[in-house]
Amino acid sequence: AIVIEGRTKCPLCSRTVSDRDEIRAFTAFLPKQHKLWRYSDAAFHEDCFSSWEHRRFFEEVWDARNDLWSERPDVPHDSSEARDWYSEFTSSFNDLVEQLSKKHGIS
């Protein structure tokens, strides 16, 4: 998420994020068709995020995504190996999101 002090709003409480706030921010990582997609490229007040009903789901998906991403090959991004890996990553990650969504009762 891009955080602009005094302009960025927490998607949970709609209050502006200030430089005095503890925040939790994420890049866009959920598939666009997911119910919670709009939250995946956002900055939250830490207090808001900590009490959010979907916090555990978000943390599990985020951690799993980072684990999968850490396995990417160290090859040029435009190589066929990188393209093949990214295709497999996307498929595996989407399956994982679906499984975790079911586990957490998110449809």
Integer-rounded radius of gyration: 16 Å
Spell out the helices and strands N to C.
EEHHH
Number of strands: 2
Share of helix, binned: 40-55%
Oligomer: single chain
Structural class: mainly alpha
Beta-strand content estimate: 5-15%
Overall pLDDT confidence: 94
Largest sheet: 2 strands, antiparallel
Q: What distance separates the N and C termini?
A: 24 Å
Strand order of the largest sheet: 1-2
Shape by Cα distribution: globular
Number of helices: 3
- Note poorly predicted spans: none
Your description of this structure?
The chain is mainly alpha-helical and 107 residues long. Helices cover 42% and strands 6% of the residues. It has helices spanning 46-51, 55-69, 80-103; strands spanning 23-25, 43-45. It is globular and about 45 Å long.
Characteristic key phrases:
mainly alpha; 107 residues; 3 helices; single chain; globular
Blueprint (SSEs and pairs):
Elements: E1 23-25, E2 43-45, H1 46-51, H2 55-69, H3 80-103
Antiparallel strand pairs: 1-2
Helix pairs in contact: 2-3
